[in-house]
Amino acid sequence: MRWITDSTRRFSKRPFYDDDELEYEAHSAISDFLLEKNGCVDYPISTDDLTLLIEQHADLDIYADLSELGCDVEGVTSFSAGKRPFVRIRESLTVDPKRQNRLRTTLAHEFGHVRLHNILFQQEAPGIPLFTQIRASEQICKREHIATALRTDWIEFQAGVICTALLAPKRAVLNLVSATTLDRDSLLQLVASTFGISNEAAWVRLSRLGVIGDPRQQRML
Fold it and tell me: Where are the domains of the chain?
């Protein structure tokens, strides 16, 4: 990671991670946690383990009323200097068994914010000037951007990469892919079921790893 000028002007400097660094951040966070807790790393990662992972680093409310923020907001992470981040997840994701994949994706996305962005609202990093006079913020995460934010929205993009990389680690996905000769749609379903994610999240993950390309293509390779 290195510090670069923030073109959005929200901060004077912001952290830049290349793709491999984001993969490493996700893999090290979940593997270290699962090895310490369970003695092994198995997939899909349980929802309980995801909540415990967040609770090691932040306060968490998985029954939050986010209705005032709009029907498409599913997670919010609040930051404030000198305090732990506060993650809120829309209650409907938690109570509806049919939305467990969406819940897990949202939890993983918010963990990405906690892991990568809390430093922006805490004490100055060594050698890095004060970012802004704003020392508190809410990162509001809408359904459509949980896993698919554009690179230009760097803070959401970074959390989105952490989200899919945490739930479906690169090496595990590529090992699964290399052992199959499935067509694209069948592969998406296999990845989704193996890692407990939606087909949409599986699509994003396989696209970022270069396994599949344009949706109009009929083959995955």
Answer: 13-167, 169-221
